[in-house]
Every structure is written in C-alpha cells, then in structure tokens.
TrEMBL record:
It comes from Caenorhabditis nigoni. It holds the Pfam family 7TM_GPCR_Sru. This is Serpentine receptor class gamma. Keywords: Membrane, Transmembrane, Transmembrane helix. The lineage of its organism: Eukaryota, Metazoa, Ecdysozoa, Nematoda, Chromadorea. InterPro entries: 7TM_GPCR_serpentine_rcpt_Sru. The keyword Repeat does not apply. The chain crosses the membrane at residues 20-43, 64-81, 87-108, 120-141. It comes from the Eukaryota.
Length: 165
C-alpha cells in the first residue's frame, strides 16, 4: 500500500489468476455488432468521396462538412476502443495476471487522457457541424454569380439565424 493506493502488482493471488469464459464475459463484446458495420459504412463513404471527380465532390458534399464528419467518426471509434480497453477488458479478467505481473507505468494514464480528449471532441463536433451548415447557407460558393437582390435575402437569412443564437 502506497499513499492510500492498493496495487495488485506482485500479489500472487492475482498473478496466478486463471481466466474462465462464461456468458457474462461475452456481454461487453455486444457493441461490436454495430461498430463493425459502422466502420464498413464509413470506409465506403470515405472511398466514395475520394473517388469522385473534384467538380462532383464540391456539388455533393462540402469539404469542411466532410472533414468534420470523418473526424467525428474517428473520435467516436477512438473513444469506443479506449473505453473498451479502460473498462470492459479489465472487468472481464482477461488481463488480470498480466497487470499483476508488470510494474506500474503511465500507459493507463495515457489511455484515460486519450479517451477523455475524444469524449470532448465528440461533444463539440455537433456544434461545429451546425456552424458549418449555417455558413454554407449564408455564404454560397458561387456568391459572385448571385444577383444583388438575392444577396440581400441571403443577409436577411443570416440575421434571422443570428437573432436565434
């Protein structure tokens, strides 16, 4: 015991622990049922966006919106795996003897920091997507081609959004 912290490092009961498989251990693997198809779908979105010609890409999806969508996906997947490694794997008992056999280090702290950072990214990205969508509605790519009277309507639309905020 060191500074009120009890460690399993070097304790023979934990080093000699033998893992047994039962149904309660398999429950943490249920999220993989939807995570794997999500990864496949996002990979298809990524490939489809990058395989289009540049003119068609600009028409179908804004580049900034696409970048935020991809970063949101990466943040979600990263958070899922750090959360899985932080909570589900240790609770299952798969790594009990391994953790008892190695000396304490900062890798687990790094895992927690990455997971918390990704959690904050997940919280802020929907707000950023909304801001990008308002900017897309307010300022078109082809604004030089828009007649003067439509520019006034565009400014009125932007000011309506500004009053809501």
């Amino acid at each position: 015991m060191q500074d009120g912290f009890i460690s399993i490092n070097g304790v023979s009961q934990y080093i000699d622990f033998r893992f047994t498989l039962n149904y309660t251990i398999l429950i943490p693997t249920v999220p993989f049922v939807y995570i794997i198809p999500t990864i496949v779908i996002m990979w298809k979105v990524y490939r489809g966006y990058h395989n289009q010609s540049s003119n068609l890409t600009k028409l179908t999806l804004d580049g900034h919106l696409y970048a935020l969508l991809m970063f949101y996906f990466v943040a979600n997947i990263s958070f899922f795996f750090t959360d899985f490694l932080r909570f589900n794997i240790p609770v299952s008992g798969l790594v009990t003897s391994l953790c008892a056999g190695i000396s304490p280090n900062r890798y687990f702290t790094l895992l927690i920091a990455i997971g918390d950072y990704m959690n904050y990214c997940i919280l802020i990205l929907p707000f950023l997507v909304s801001v990008v969508r308002i900017i897309i509605l307010s300022f078109a790519y082809n604004q030089k081609k828009v007649p003067y009277e439509n520019k006034q309507n565009r400014n009125q639309l932007f000011f309506r959004f500004e009053h809501v905020l």
